[in-house]
Design goal:
Bound molecules: iron/sulfur cluster
CATH class of the largest domain: Mainly Alpha
Structural class: mainly alpha
CATH topology of the largest domain: Transcription Elongation Factor S-II, Chain A
Number of helices: 15
Distance between the termini: 69 Å
Strand order of the largest sheet: 1-2-4-3
Helix content: 40-55%
Order of helices and strands: HHHHHHEEHEEHHHHHHHH
């Protein structure tokens, strides 16, 4: 049964290497929808509260009771009477060829739940990958800490070996857990606490003695780096997640967006571009074009739009003024440019939410009229 022994571990820890075999060919459907719902819940909690409570389950490790017919799949000679974890890099090839058998219903149920977990993890990574560095760091730190808490309550005896193989951390496990000094120092150098100084530890033959909590703290540092790394899998249909990211980014930057009148009426895509420009982020040309056309269309002057670009890392006043005036129809053939539609914004990855409109101006006008209506009611 494909991946059987590692499925329960992937279910709880979807970043494990063999999860890649479940992530092939992600398609819309029931599993996709369930994963998206889970991703929304986790991402919102991670960004707003800095934590999500994962609940690890009891996990059997079927390989312990098997005669290991998959042995030939391993080119690292890591499968003997038992698994030789110090040789294993958790490539997953043996688990792919697993022929251990459990009830098909239980297997199917486990596979679906593991897929939901993996998809939701990939969805979060994909949505967060387009955010600014501060938000990506918040995500990576919160997710790594949350998984560490899950590991601390996990009853699986084999979990340290699986994590060590996955993150290439050298360990020796006897009555204690020993972590190679180089792996220990990589983590300890970032932890500002006296007990993490090497002199405070028991060091023997190049390995540092740790308890399980200490080991999972080392793993947390590895996870934090892994979750912060650029992520290249792009998935369509994640607008609800991108909305969560955008709202969080905007809430962080709210103080720096003063001076942009009617900012609350701006569609999320335009708010994000303004926030990025104010934050001196490198904003792509298509997004600069979009915000320029939008602001000119809703009544901002060339001078006001120019002011918005002053924080851009490559700001050149003469060039920027020429481009804005050109878009405003004050130069060249006098053509005024339209605000790009939502579908064009999506094509260039400038759409950040699912607003139920076809054009950003439609949303702006709707908000403007609703605002006026509210004012009139208040009179
Ligand atoms: S066949 Fe291999 S992967 Fe499957 S349970 Fe046995 S040892 Fe584990
Ligand atoms: S997961 Fe480990 S034991 Fe299995 S094939 Fe890969 S290296 Fe060998
Ligand atoms: S749906 Fe349209 S208005 Fe909303 S964020 Fe996307 S591009 Fe902007």
């Amino acid at each position: 049964m494909r991946l059987l022994p590692i499925l329960p571990f992937i279910l709880d820890y979807p970043f494990l290497r063999p999860a890649k075999f479940l992530a092939e060919n992600i398609q819309r459907g029931m599993v996709f929808n369930a994963a998206l719902e889970r991703a929304e819940e986790i991402l919102e909690s991670l960004l707003k509260r800095g934590h999500y409570e994962f609940k690890p389950e009891d996990k059997p490790f079927y390989c312990s009771a098997c005669d290991k017919v998959c042995r030939d799949a391993c080119d690292r000679d890591a499968i003997a009477e038992d698994f030789l974890w110090d040789r294993c890099n958790l490539c997953g090839e043996c688990f792919l060829r697993c022929d251990y058998s459990i009830s098909p219903e239980s297997y199917r149920e486990m596979e679906i739940r593991a897929k939901v977990s993996v998809y939701s993890y990939i969805m979060m990574r994909s949505a967060i990958s387009r955010a600014g560095e501060g938000v990506r760091r918040r995500f990576a730190t919160s997710l790594a800490r949350s998984y560490r808490h899950a590991m601390e309550s996990d009853q699986s005896e084999i979990l340290p070996e699986i994590l060590a193989s996955n993150f290439s951390i050298k360990i020796i496990k006897n009555e204690s857990l020993w972590v190679h000094v180089s792996d220990y120092l990589k983590a300890a150098s970032r932890i500002k606490s006296p007990e993490w100084k090497l002199v405070s530890r028991n060091l023997r033959r190049g390995y540092v003695e740790l308890d399980a909590l200490g080991f999972y703290r080392v793993v947390e540092e590895r996870m934090r780096d892994a979750f912060f790394e650029p992520f290249t899998i792009e998935i369509e249909g994640l607008e609800s997640l991108m909305n969560i990211v955008t709202e969080y980014e905007l809430s962080r930057k709210a103080g720096r967006i003063e001076g942009v009148k009617d900012f609350d009426l701006f569609p999320p895509c335009m708010r994000k571009i303004v926030a990025d420009l104010k934050d001196s982020a490198n904003v792509p040309h298509t997004a600069r074009f979009a915000i320029t056309t939008f602001m000119l269309n809703v009544g901002y002057s060339v001078e006001e739009v120019l002011d918005l670009f002053r924080n851009a890392p490559d700001f050149d006043e003469e060039k920027a003024r020429y481009q804005i005036e050109h878009i405003a129809g004050q130069r060249g053939a006098g053509k005024e440019y339209d605000v790009p539609s939502c579908s064009t914004m999506k094509t260039y990855h400038n759409c950040v939410a699912e607003c139920g409109v076809r054009h950003p101006m439609e949303l702006y006008r709707r908000r403007l009229y609703e605002g006026r209506g509210r004012k009139a009611e208040g009179k």
